[in-house]
Amino acid sequence: MLVVGVEPGSPARLAGLREGDIVIAFKGQPIAGVDELLRKCVATEIGVASVLTVTRPTEKLEFPVVPEELSAKVQQVTRVDNSKRPDTLEG
Fold first, then answer.
1. What tens digit of pLDDT does each residue of 23-73 get?
2. The dihedral sign for the CA sequence 34, 72, 14, 4
3. DSSP class of residue 76?
4. 90 falls in which pLDDT band (50, 70, 90)?
């Protein structure tokens, strides 16, 4: 799953994710797409670090990511049907 953008101040940015990273696992479990990653993040306790595994052109990296409360804007976006979207993440 390709990361197409990372919001300033977001948990993803604070963890070290960058545009162009490819997310391959969360908490050691493979990720098939955006919806699966969001489900796993939502099921994770707020404030507890989990490991997000990504690849970059020359390396495989693991980042501790600490989920936080979803903003109203994000909650609204996650209710949209993403079945026709490519597997990309902007966070």
1. 999 999 999 888 888 888 888 888 888 899 999 988 999 988 877 765 544
2. positive
3. H
4. low
Average pLDDT over residues 10-24: 86
Residue written as token pair 């997310």: 23
The pLDDT value recorded for residue 81 is: 42
d(CA 30, CA 44): 16
How do the domains of the chain map onto residue ranges? 2-79
CA-to-CA distance for 67 and 64, rounded, in angstroms? 10
- CATH architecture of the region 2-79: Roll (2.30)
53: which 2 tokens? 């595994």
- SS3 label, residue 50: strand
Cβ atoms of 12 and 65 closer than 8 Å:
yes
Spatial separation of the C-alpha atoms in residues 64 and 61, rounded to whole Å:
10
CA distance linking residue 52 with residue 59, whole number of Å = 14
